[in-house]
Design a protein that fits this description.
The structure holds two protein chains of two kinds.
Chain A (H helix, E strand, L loop, with lengths): L1 H18 L2 E8 L2 E2 L4 E5 L12 E4 L5 E5 L3 E13 L2 E8 L5 E3 L3 E3 L3 E5 L12 E9 L2 E2 L4 E5 L12 E4 L5 E6 L2 E9 L14 E4 L5 E3 L4 E3 L3 E2 L1 E2 L2 H10 L7 E8 L10 E5 L10 E2 L8 E6 L3 E8 L11 E4 L7 E4 L4 E11 L2
Parallel strand pairs in A: 1-9, 1-10, 11-19, 11-20, 22-29
Antiparallel strand pairs in A: 1-2, 1-5, 3-4, 3-6, 6-7, 6-8, 7-10, 11-12, 11-15, 13-14, 13-16, 16-17, 16-18, 17-21, 22-25, 23-24, 23-26, 26-27, 26-28, 27-29
Chain B lengths: L1 H8 L6 E2 L2 E3 L2 E4 L2 E4 L3 E3 L4 E4 L4 E4 L3 E3 L2 E5 L2 E3 L6 E4 L6 E3 L2 E3 L3 E6 L4 E3 L2 E3 L3 E6 L5 E3 L2 E3 L4 E6 L5 E3 L2 E3 L4 E6 L5 E3 L2 E3 L3 E6 L6 E3 L2 E3 L3 E6 L5 E3 L2 E3 L3 E5 L6 E3 L2 E3 L3 E6 L5 E3 L2 E3 L3 E6 L3 H17 L14 H4 L7 E3 L7 H8 L10 E2 L6 E4 L2 E4 L2 E3 L15
Parallel strand pairs in B: 1-4, 2-5, 3-6, 4-7, 5-8, 6-9, 7-10, 8-11, 9-12, 10-13, 11-14, 12-15, 13-16, 14-17, 15-18, 16-19, 17-20, 18-21, 19-22, 20-23, 21-24, 22-25, 23-26, 25-28, 26-29, 27-30, 28-31, 29-32, 30-33, 31-34, 32-35, 33-36, 34-37, 35-38, 38-40, 39-43
Antiparallel strand pairs in B: 41-42
The chains are: A mainly beta, B mainly beta.
């Protein structure tokens, strides 16, 4: 009996401490406290990072922030977009000592100084070093395309670029850089946007001479950088080679609505992390007309499963979403090289 | 000879149109069946003649130009038309679109959709990505989810449209601020218009909301300006929920069961409106500035770190400062309104602390319980009041 009391007390204590743990600190820019900046807490680093952070806090007038977080390791990124009054800039910083471990109390991190992204930001222009060139498709100049400069070459997509510029009406562009190694990529989306997934008909291409290595004072003119029209078939093939790779270990099942009617065009997500947060480890192709899906995995183990009608970004009204509910934690144990049937997964509309 | 060439060029497509890309000028008339995805490239132009019937099973995506006048688009659960970055030369006029998951998805650009009918789709039209489309004189009838979705910072002009008998919402403004939203009519919808999420602060002007379960719902920190609308015979005229602070001004609220319902830390400014023959004019529920001061920020922080649909899909992209209520003094501000003919006679003999029968607030129920604790229900500050109607309606 005494043991049970002790156990209950221990559980109560654990519950209390979990609720008051997190990360706090102070943000600055140009040696002044930075108010109204976002600090984002991710579970993974770099390219593994999801589009949506696990949690977000905002700095107060003194630049201080505090976020309640469950135990775990977090990668911190701070941002602030400043617009209006002649300003149009993005301030950003990644915490140098990432990841930050949260256990049972609040961790205070070192002060984090943001820098301006772009001309004087994460890629600093020294005023002497530059790259210029012209984008073309079938020999014709491409106006209005965005040229992205990355400082790492593992994935030339997404918002982790250090600088971006846009080609002029004759397809010409100029990048002011400094000595270093860079990877260039260009995209022109038909809706004119700077960010977002490309779709069929858009223009896209990585510079074939990547990476560029620049010396101080070098003024490089790029030649022969053709873009190609994104083809839906090729895009799907590329997707299949990525998240949709066929393997001998898979999960299958059927997506249904609350009335047990089959639901098409739903993606299944498999996470190795039981919190089911951020970028999933595996994604299925959309469910078929009859609701059937196959979700390929690369190995056995414990996976936690969700279903959603889109991927990326926060849930929007009208989306369909659900989880694998045979276990309360939405998990399933998968054996390598075996096929596991999950039965029905129910999705509901979110409004 | 030119006539023959013209006829050859003027394609008659009674047969199946296979997956392909239109890069030049193409013209359709008669019966057209689309079985696989069709794309009109940036350089392409698709002209569809009046009277043409297009039956589709696939996306029809327009990056170039579409002109469809008097065309019937239909299918059985087909994906719908997608207008992607098209300019004002793209025109859908006097058309009928049925059976689609989303009748027309408009991504960016500024196409015109005029005088068309969107009927029995899941969603009639969805606007995305800062689209500046013009939607005028359209009818949205019996779409199973939403007549018109305005999302993703769309800046469209929405005027003189009719929304009737949708499955859920006549129009849904989500994280967007249409440049114009006026002179539309909403009849017999579960919710006529919903405006949701911080940053959704459009001007909603001169619209009519009649016989809806809820005429206008404002939710999740949205702050629209509701001006000079006619809100008549709805179960709830205007419902405010979850920290929503609209400016409600110069509207006519008449014959509603509840004209305005205020819930969960919402602090509107209700000014210069006419209330007439409503069963209840203003009702507060679960509304306490004491609760908001004590728990509001913490509750939102909890929401921020809570797990989402199947994990931590974070919804919170709004700062606490942005969501904080202004001037929490235990009152909802409803001064300078006209409360009705008989009500005005009562008011002339009342002092400003009177408990008015058409207002349900902390004078009627002092507290409500939340998490085992009693919280004082806010009151309505209605003094001074208008002694004559403020709108141009004939109410006397």
């Amino acid at each position: 009996m005494k043991f049970i009391h002790l156990l209950l007390f221990g559980l109560l204590l654990a519950g209390c401490t979990e609720g008051s743990a997190g990360i706090e600190g102070q943000l600055s820019f140009n040696q002044h406290p930075l108010a109204e900046a976002r600090i984002e807490f991710y579970l993974k680093n770099g390219t593994e990072r999801s589009a949506t952070p696990f949690s977000v806090a905002t700095s107060d007038a003194q630049g201080n922030f505090q976020a309640l977080l469950p135990r775990g390791n977090y990668y911190l990124v701070a941002r602030k977009k400043e617009q209006g009054g002649g300003l149009n800039r993005m301030l950003m910083a990644e915490y140098a000592a990432n990841p930050v471990k949260v256990d049972r109390a609040f961790i205070r991190i070192q002060p984090l100084a943001l820098k301006e992204v772009g001309a004087a930001g994460s890629i600093v222009a020294d005023g002497k070093t530059s790259v210029r060139g012209q984008l073309q498709v079938d020999g014709q100049p491409v106006a209005g395309a965005f040229i992205y400069v990355y400082t790492r070459g593992n994935a030339l997509t997404g918002p982790s670029y250090g600088q971006v510029t846009q080609s002029d009406e004759h397809g010409f562009f100029r990048l002011n850089l400094s000595a270093g190694q860079y990877w260039l990529s260009a995209r022109r989306r038909s809706d004119g946007s700077r960010v977002g997934d490309v779709s069929a008909g858009d223009l896209s291409g990585e510079y074939p001479g990547n990476p560029l290595t620049l010396q101080t004072g070098q003024q490089l003119t790029l030649t022969d950088w053709p873009l190609r029209v994104v083809n839906e078939t090729l895009r799907e093939q590329k997707l299949e080679q990525g998240k949709f790779t066929r393997t001998r270990t898979w999960l299958s099942g059927r997506v249904v609505d609350e009335d047990q009617a089959p639901v098409s065009d739903i993606y299944l997500f498999a996470y190795r992390d039981s919190r089911m947060i951020g970028k999933p480890d595996f994604i299925s192709m959309p469910s078929a007309k009859d609701g059937q899906f196959v979700l390929y995995l690369d190995q056995g183990g414990e996976y936690y499963l969700g279903a959603r009608s889109t991927f990326g970004g926060p849930l929007e009204p009208g989306e369909r979403v659900g989880t694998y509910d045979q276990r309360p934690d939405h998990g399933v144990l998968v054996k390598k090289d075996q096929q596991t049937s999950l039965g029905d997964i129910v999705v509901r509309e979110v409004w | 000879m030119p006539w023959l060439l013209f006829c050859a060029f003027f394609l008659l497509l009674p047969t199946l149109t296979e997956a392909r890309v239109i890069t030049d000028i193409e013209r359709w008339q008669g019966e057209v069946s689309v079985s696989e995805e069709l794309r009109v490239a940036k350089t392409g132009q698709l002209f569809i003649a009046p009277g043409t019937r297009v039956v589709s099973r696939a996306h029809i995506e327009i990056l170039g130009q579409l002109q469809a006048i008097g065309v019937d688009f239909s299918g059985d659960d087909w994906p719908g038309l997608v207008l992607k970055g098209t300019d004002a030369a793209t025109l859908v006029q006097d058309c009928r679109v049925t059976g689609a998951r989303t009748g027309i998805t408009i991504i960016g650009g500024e196409p015109r959709v005029l005088g068309s009918r969107f009927e029995k789709n899941q969603v009639g039209i969805e606007l995305r990505h800062k689209s500046r489309a013009l939607l005028e004189n359209n009818r949205f009838i019996e779409n199973s989810r939403v007549g018109l979705f305005v999302k993703d910072e769309a800046e469209a002009l929405v005027r003189h449209n009719t929304f009737a008998q949708q499955g859920k919402f006549g129009a849904y403004i989500y994280r967007a601020k249409p440049a114009e939203f006026r002179d539309n009519q909403f009849f017999d919808n579960p919710t006529g218009l919903i405006i949701s999420y911080y940053g959704s602060d459009p001007h909603i002007r001169h619209n009519q909301f009649e016989r809806n379960q809820t005429g206008i719902k404002v939710d999740r920190s949205a702050r629209p300006h509701l001006y000079a609308n006619r809100i008549i015979a709805n179960q709830i005229g205007i419902a405010l929920d979850r920290r929503s602070d609209p400016l409600i001004e110069n509207n006519l609220l008449r014959l509603n069961q509840q004209a305005i319902l205020v819930k969960f830390s919402s602090y509107p400014v209700i000014r210069h409106n006419d209330f007439s023959a409503n069963q209840q004019s203003l009702v507060l529920e679960y509304q306490s500035s004491s609760w908001e001061i004590a728990n509001g920020a913490a509750a939102r922080q909890q929401q921020t770190t809570s797990r989402g649909a199947f994990g931590g899909q974070k919804q919170a992209q709004v700062t606490e400062t942005q969501r904080q209520a202004r001037g929490l003094d235990g009152y909802v501000d409803a001064r300078k309104n006209w409360w009705g003919l008989a009500e005005t006679q009562i008011l002339k003999n009342a002092d400003e602390e009177a408990n008015l029968p058409w207002i349900v607030d902390g004078y009627d129920t002092a507290t409500f319980e939340e998490s085992g604790k009693d919280w004082p229900l806010d009151r309505v500050r209605w003094w001074p009041f208008a002694s004559a109607p403020m709108t141009n309606e004939d109410l006397l």
